[in-house]
Amino acid sequence: MRTRTPASVVRIGVVVIYLFLLVGWPMGRVVQETFFTGENYLTMALADPSLRNAVWVTLAAAGCAVVFNTVLGVTLGILLVRYQFPGKRLLSALADLPTSVSPIVVGLALLLAYGPVHGVLGAPLAEAGVQLIFSFPGIVLAVTFVSLPLVLRAVIPVLQEIGTDQETAAQSLGASGGQVLLRITLPSIRWAVAYGVVLTLARAVGEFGAVLVVSGGIVNQTETATIAVQRLHQGFETGQAYAIGFLLALVAVAALVIVTILRPHERND
Amino acid sequence: MGIEISGLSKHYGDFAALEDITLSVPSGGLTALLGPSGSGKTTLLRILGGQETPDAGTVHIDGRDVTRVPAQQRNIGFVFQHYAAFKHMSVAKNVAFGLEIRKLPKERIRQRVEELLQLVQLAQHGHRMPSQLSGGQRQRMALARALAIDPSVLLLDEPFGALDAKVRKELRDWLRRLHDDVHVTSVFVTHDQEEALEVADTIVVVNEGRIEQVGTPDEIYDHPATDFVFHFIGEATRLGEVLLRPHDVLITAEGEQHPVSTARAGTISRWNRVGFEIRLEVTLDEAVQQGPVHVQLTRTEAQGLGIGPGDRVQVAPHPSAELRPAGSH
Ligand SMILES: Nc1ncnc2c1ncn2[C@@H]1O[C@H](COP(=O)(O)OP(=O)(O)OP(=O)(O)O)[C@@H](O)[C@H]1O
Ligand SMILES: [Mg+2]
User: What ipTM was reported for this prediction?
Assistant: First the structure.
């Protein structure tokens, strides 16, 4: 620790005020509106079956996105860091695309590809009785798409940093490829994976634009929590809108807190 | 028995990292691969360990052709410069790794790990994480881990390269003693000639992917086969038409009777004290060579001779010194 000088106190003060004005105070207002304006809007909101359904849809879709993107992120990460193959740079750039494109564009793109009317794949699938768009699978598709590279990007620097020495050592001690993966590589990157999972979860839970296009936002069916917040807000049920907003923030904060608590045990090496 | 390497070559693109290496490493010995950076030491070691495949040639270990056998089936212990500790496992778990892979009974593993930790003087530290150990301790742990599988060969790639000078020296002595107890055929890579001379039974000097000389430390030091070995294995200086070791230069003050009649006169132009040692330079009166003559003495010797900076002296090769004809340089 460096000693505190007046200048450093000022610097810290500026940062704290900035973060408070930008993050702390507005979030605090949401909490205030939810709990301290006469009613407890949270219990009220959760008593509403359509809102319960919306929260459930959001969590389920986010859960699916986490599973898909974790498997993809870890596999692709190992592939990109440990192996040489043609088209590697292109693949790496392609994996970054989903976070750089506006979510609403993602939604439109998915609609064009998988939509029941114009969709190249969607039309034949619709005829076969499988509906991707305006249903739960479409929502999963959208949130998986927008949060695709988050685990990958968390995992890659750690894979690069640990290098291949441990894996080589394990191999020389008789471990097979699978054993090296399970006993050395995966445990070494588990905190990076956890971090990526948290980011993925937060991103998937909070997604609005892409989901709005592909889900159709049918109340009690394909409405997600973020879409419900907009509906409530526009319908002047602002208290309940804040309550759902509070829940969404809570999921993200809880995930971040869990990772922060778990992480220090591993960091001191 | 031991390791038989024959006709081994390895190219990276056009670049020849190893060229036609033929070498026989005796069973039970401690062999040093000594050479400058980029000479191919690590490449050779990785081929022995099975991490790299040669373009041509064969490797036999204890009579078995292992050239195409994958690393995990070779039963070779490998120790890395940067320890390669399994960071997420305790010290005991690290050492147990190879045994757990081999599915030994739990009780046997526990006993063997305890023995090995005793052997490398880490018995108290089994429950710690590698990050809680010093560099020297981590490397001893890595050694125990490699020895756990009863390897037919132990390969060490600059095992002490990441440690500071004092720990390095301690560990070097310790490795020598350990090897005298354990007797596993060992090959270690180093670019530190002092380390090789002190620890190894046999030294293999490599340069630019080729073997320059194989021999005991004494043979290598006293009878270097090539100019490269002569220059690499110790310091060298020129005195007139010959090259020799700086400590093989006989020096006396001017006016004293020099034991060698052909001694040349000169002036001490530099005087450097490094610990117990004096390193000095003598600029000769006659222009028989470009630079000065380098001389090494102990402080006591210098005092006995009564010489100091700026003094006039006479120098000649020691009569029993190993001399080499000087080239053009
Ligand atoms: N994977 C590789 N691809 C291309 N060139 C390589 C590769 N591995 C090694 N080389 C080259 O082969 C030569 C020998 O390398 P090697 O690592 O065996 O040297 P070394 O003797 O161990 O050197 P050091 O003392 O610096 O570790 C070097 O010139 C190196 O650049
Ligand atoms: Mg090397």
Answer: 0.81
Q: Taking ligand 2, which is a single-atom ion, which protein residues have CB atoms under 5 Å away?
A: B 42
Residue A24 lies in a domain: no
A138 in a domain, yes or no? Answer: yes
Q: How many structural domains compose chain A?
A: 1
Residue A27 forms part of a structural domain: no
DSSP character string of A14-77: HHHHHHIIIIIHHHHHHHHHHHSBSB-HHHHHHHSHHHHHHHHHHHHHHHHHHHHHHHHHHHHH
CB-based contact B207:B39 (threshold 8 Å): yes
Task: Of B71, B79, B148, give the one whose Cα is nearest residue A172.
Answer: B71
In this structure, what token pair is assigned to residue B135? 């560099």
Task: Read off the pLDDT of residues B266-316 as tens digits, 9 standing for 90 and up.
Answer: 999 999 998 889 999 999 998 888 889 999 999 999 899 889 899 999 999
Ligand 1 pocket by C-beta < 6 Å: which residues?
B 12, 17, 35, 37-43, 191
Tell the residue number behind the tokens 């490449």, with chain if given: B43
From CA B190, how far away is CA B195, in angstroms rounded?
7
pTM of the predicted structure, to 2 decimals? 0.81
State whether B74 and A175 contact (CB < 8 Å). Answer: no
Nearest residue in A to B155, CA atom: A172
User: Cβ contacts of residue B324 below 8 Å, gap of 6+?
Assistant: B224, B227, B230, B242, B243, B244
**Phi and psi dihedrals of A94, rounded to 5?**
-60, -35
Placement of tokens 């922060």 in the chain: A260
Q: Residue ranges of the alpha helices (H) in chain A?
A: 6-19, 25-35, 41-47, 49-82, 88-100, 103-114, 122-127, 136-146, 149-162, 165-172, 177-180, 186-188, 190-206, 209-215, 225-234, 238-262, 264-267
Rounding to the nearest 10 degrees, give the CA dihedral for residues A147, A152, A153, A156.
180
Residue A260: give its domain's CATH number.
1.10.3720.10
Q: Report pLDDT digits (tens) over A55-100.
A: 999 999 999 999 999 999 999 999 999 999 999 999 999 988 888 8
Q: Which residues from chain A sit within 8 angstroms of residue B83, using beta carbons?
A: 165
- Which residues span the domain enclosing A169? 32-268
For residues A4 and A218, give the distance between their C-alpha atoms in angstroms, rounded to a whole number: 56
State how far the Cα of A137 lies from the Cα of B169, in Å rounded to an integer.
65
Segment B284-297, tens digit of pLDDT: 998 888 889 999 99
A257 located within any domain: yes
Q: What is the 8-class DSSP label of residue B30?
A: E
Length of chain A: 269
